[in-house]
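Figure S7 source data.
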Amino acid sequence: MTATKPANTTSQSILNQSVQYLKGVGPKRSEIFEKLGIHTIRDMLYYFPREYKDLTKIQKISEAKIGTEISVQGKVLGINTRISRNRKHILEVFVGDETGAVAATWFNQPFLISKFHVGDNIYLHGKVGVYKYLQLLSPEYEIVPDEEVKKEGSIVPIYPLTEHISQTHFRKIMKEAVHHFTDHIEELLPQEILVKNQLLLLNRAIREIHFPETFDTLKRAKTRLVYDELLILEIAMALRRSGIKEEMGISFKVGPNVDAHIRNLIPFTLTNAQERLINEIKKDMQNNKPMNRLLQGDVGSGKTVVAIYAILAAIANGYQATFMAPTEILSEQHFQTIQKYLQHSHVRMQLLTGSTNSKYKKDALEQIRNGQIDLVIGTHALIEETVQFKKLGLVVIDEQHKFGVIQRLKLKEKGYCPDVLIMTATPIPRTLSLTLFGDLDISILDEMPPGRTPIKTFWIPKDKEKEAYNFIHGEIAKGGQVFIVYPLVEESKALDLKSAVTEARKLQSDVFPTLKIGLLHGQMKSAEKDKIMTNFKEKRYDILVSTVILEVGIDVPNATVMVIEHAERFGLAQLHQLRGRIGRGSEQSYCLLFGNPKTNEARERLRIMTKTCDGFKIAEMDFKLRGPGEFFGTRQHGLPELRISDLIKDFPILKQARSDAFGIVSKDPRLTLETHQKIRQKVMETFKDKLELISIG
Ligand code: ADP
Ligand code: MG
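Tokens for the predicted adenosine-5'-diphosphate complex:
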């Protein structure tokens, strides 16, 4: 192996060589590296430590204070095992430095003995206790090779590894790689960005992230690498957005006549927020660039009329519109709601879902193709190739995060650069809206329609259930109605049905013998569900027991109590959605969370629910509890895996990277400038299987 560049070999190709070129990695060991996702030398250099061992804080054994934690380094002086009076196996490894000795002690782990040998150098970190002598109880330990002992005072990387390779060995190979190859890493960023943001050079950052000189340089190295990762992501967003901005779209005409006509169909006064959003959308639609807007609004904030405004504006201009929702119930619900609004208009509507009767569907498709239908509402069945429009001008998508970017594009392609309006009831934390939806303009509906009283939420532990049931009796006596929701038994539909039926029966016989209870479960056909819901709306039931997630569908102003059984099994977003089913009338409403959470996280979820009704706050906390990967399937959004960035902690860097990325792309929309070539290359690599999402020419 050599550190000098052979003639005619670029740094690129050197870094793309197999890890087998590294000393200590033969064909056999390279299999282990493959498993870690390390194929090339570049992969190796970009395989970052998961944490660091702080040897700068090594203390003398004589400084050990009972009850505090300490890190020491010394030699193994002796090894002893014994059985305690209460028959525990005790392993003691005596370690000494030049100031004293301490016993590292483990209980009932006899197998550990093979790890230690008298004379070994050893690092220990643990809590100081005392027996007949000083002890460290079950400390962290590491056998330190002789050549590393001299490195006292250093920060040692710890890598995420499998058991087939030791930290020491991996570190040695990494040292080799860093030593010989970091100089081949070419700088990604233009000079001005480096200077402006005071970033470390890339090769320096790579060196420091593996073998930091100080904690301060380590921090700067992390900042640099996080910046790179987020910059590439935001460049992709910026390219996508500038690609859209370059398209020629439709200039809809929305004059006073059209406006008045639409407003005539809306039976209430719009909120200020609705007015503001309608204005933003109107501007987008009038503009000849395609609209690409995300409308965020909490459950019940009144998104539907905003969408209807856009739909009617498009139709008034002689175009067709389509409205896609993630489930059949949701599409049916939208269809019915919109039909009601439009009953005095001439708009021709069509519902299209997976269960639309096939013979009927053929006719419908024909009518959509020849323009006899103005508005098509449906599920992802709308994406199918058989669905062709005569003149599609507007695409509305509800609950965007359930679909993802690719589906959005597919639907969009059915028209000629139609306007796109995306709606979501799950408020998206700002960090995510800047990444997942970074290519969209964002509008937020942050005002509830008037006349709502905030819902009171209580957590009901097991011993308070009786009181809660009494309270429910009282609410019903006052004329209210109650939802009781059980978690869906996902594993088995049959089981789900059984649990719903048994629970409803139990409630009827044991708790509410005099009340009328309706039952809604996942096995019902949608006509059946509709019937039950209608009956509930018309007060033929006092209580509706349900295992179906009532995310949507029911708008029953008279329902004042939402009971969620086993609330600990629901995610925050779901709990918030469910709670959104009540509080729709003027009466005080109550959400009762039954449950005995076992984990801290579950307890935290319930606590948050009782503290706030603000969907955005809940979303932020949900995101913090679960992390971005879990929050939404990040994959389907075309978001590459983030290796080093933490979207929450690194939010300030994200903002900077975003602003720089949009700056770069506005100056150089195709990344053709010489100074942007490395960035361009990196974007291509990062998004290699999703290039259709980016307009990079
Ligand atoms: P979202 O889709 O945002 O959850 P909806 O559009 O379904 O909310 O609206 C929730 C309820 O509020 C509906 O019953 C709707 O008729 C009503 N609503 C919407 N906007 C207003 C308003 N400005 N004034 C009074 N009621 C409204
Ligand atoms: Mg809605």
